[in-house]
Amino acid sequence: MKIIKNALRMQKIALKHLKCGDEIGLVPTMGALHEGHISLIGKSKKNDDVTIVSIFVNPVQFSPNEDYLKYPRSINEDLCVCKKYNVNYVFIPSSVNEMFKQEHKTFVEVKSLQDVLCGQFRPIHFKGVATIVTKLFNISYADRAYFGMKDFQQFKIVEKLAKELNFRTKIIACPIVREQSGLARSSRNFYLTTEEKNISVNIFKILKTAAQDFKRKDLHIIKKNTVTKLNKIKNSKLDYAEIVDFNDLSIVADKKTKKAVFVLAIWIGKTRLIDNIIMIKR
Questions:
Q1: Do residues 92 and 5 touch, judged by C-beta distance below 8 A?
Q2: For residues 101 and 230, what is the distance between their CA atoms, to the nearest angstrom?
Q3: Are strands 236-245 and 24-29 parallel, antiparallel or unpaired?
């Protein structure tokens, strides 16, 4: 395993592999690696000749009042994880300036998808995500990039970005990895107290009920019942809970819809959690 801290050097190494005919897999992360990230690494190791894991807490996707400074950082532990799972390269930019110099003025936006759902509450977030992903694709020359489905909106934005900007990189969707309790794995779970974790397990239970009801109940009733249950979770505040189209994130109201996603963002204490469940009517 090699640790690369310079973007140009990483790009030159990737280009060399590309010229040799190697297929490259990219696992973009902000560190604090957990079982969800490990599952992405496993997919790349299975599919690709070379696996690159990037670790960079990206400041341009955080608003001034968000948790950029306190976001979990555990670089030594992360490197141990990468070594254990035979990652070929870990790209860790030496500083923010390595990726975003002070004069940096170029940003990427996916306007049709970025301003809804989480975008209503985090207005600069997805512009920052789209920009860093674009840079990582260009640095890594990745054939495939692996994204977990926990942040469904992010996945759809990256998917659309790659398609419309003609990147060579194929976006691979990977299932949500959950703790035994059902709580979706997230680096921000580190913020939760034991009591808050116990409370948070109700989120997935409520989503599973919504998915079961999707097969036989009206969408309006499903949403109403789900929101009512979510609002009853102790010490919580709901940002949004919506049933959206699987392809374009538009709000679904048509009873004939066969495939939709129930997406939500909810605060448990001071921690904002996101989750979703794909709902299929057979």
A1: yes
A2: 42
A3: unpaired
225: phi then psi, degrees, rounded to nearest 5 = -65, -40
Contact, 77 vs 190, CB < 8 A?
no
pLDDT, tens digit (0-9, with 9 covering 90-100), for 152-205: 999 999 999 999 999 999 999 999 999 999 999 999 999 999 999 999 999 999
CA distance 80 to 82: 5
Q: Which helix (H) or strand (E) holds 177?
A: none
Helix axes 125-140, 152-164, angle to 10 degrees: 50
184 has which bridge partners?
A: 178
C-alpha span between 47 and 23 (Å, rounded): 8
- φ/ψ of residue 274, rounded to 5: -120, 155
Active site residues: 37
- C-alpha angle 15-75-171 in degrees, rounded to nearest 5: 45
Q: Is the pTM of this model over 0.90?
A: yes
Distance between CA 169 and CA 146 in Å, rounded?
10
Query: Residue 58 gets which letter from DSSP?
Result: -
The amino acid at residue 34 is H
